[in-house]
Amino acid sequence: xxxxxxxxxxxxxxxxLLATLCLGAHGFQAATASTVRYDTILQAQQQQQQQQxxxxxxxxxxxxxxxxxxxxxxxxLAPLEEAQAAETTLAxxxxxxxxxxxxxxxxxxxxxxxxxxxxxxxxxxxxxxxMGLFGTTVPRTVKEFLTYVDGFNAMDDNPxxxxxRSSFVSLDQSTGLLVGGYIPSLEVTxxxxxxxxxxxxxxxxxxxxxxxxQTERYSHxxxxxxxxxxxxxxxxxxxxxxxxxxxxxxxxxxxxxLLDESSREFLTIVEDLPTYNMERPRGxxxxxxxxxxxxxxxxxxxxxxxxxxxxxxxDNRVNKVFPGKLLxxxxxxxxxxx
Length: 338
Prior knowledge:
Layout: H1 3-36, H2 38-50, H3 60-86, E1 95-103, E2 125-133, H4 139-150, E3 167-171, E4 177-180, E5 187-191, E6 194-199, E7 202-205, E8 225-229, E9 237-240, E10 251-257, H5 261-271, H6 290-312, E11 325-337
Antiparallel strand pairs: 1-2, 1-11, 2-10, 3-4, 3-11, 4-9, 5-6, 6-7, 8-9, 8-10
Helix pairs in contact: 1-3
């Protein structure tokens, strides 16, 4: 390595540090990539200069400036491209809502622990989900969704139901739909011949989330779409983790996740979480005998009998066990308008 190249190395290292401090991980990664290519570029320029007349040789400072410029510009482009991707939406966004979320360890805890191995199962995830709502094309559904965003007041002894006290409870393995909006103690009930919501000693109106003047319907053909079951009155909603066009006839898309780094990581973790399976364990279907088929049918019948009997005697614990139930706690700790 020549003396001039050794003198230029400290300058590149300083620029790496500045890019990291100012732009975070994106800055470091992009600047590092530029620096790795620095020697290759400089060598190519030196070879080109040796083949040129003395009067046309590129000054070494100019060569260094071009490489330094790339090291500084590339870190700026990475977050810009991500932001542009996040802003690409199916419809105009009228409201943005932020969900602060957390995913527990496999033992269901969130508190700090130093006695566990450093594995994915023993890590607590904290992140944010930014949701864009389509209030122009799906106004009624968006309005009802926002009632569970604006209603919470931590100082109120008897607050209204809110997503700030909700959780994601299941992942449908057949459609990939992540179901959230479960608010403890909230019940859909019958009151005076009409459907109502019972919560905290209050009986609240339960209007249908139905847009009779919806100007456009959207297909569930991509990841990160917000959807609600048509004609349902409860606050539960879903987030698609993959294309699920079979939901088009039963659900209404009313928004989408703005897929930044945090929301992508959240969906990746949730997709890998274990879920409850109510089916009898089975081996390879190719090795299944007629006796195995009969045993599975008997198992399913007995399961339904016991579940029905439990409900008859008022045992509500059976309602807490259902197919696709997430076996880790996925909770919302705070909700706010962006």
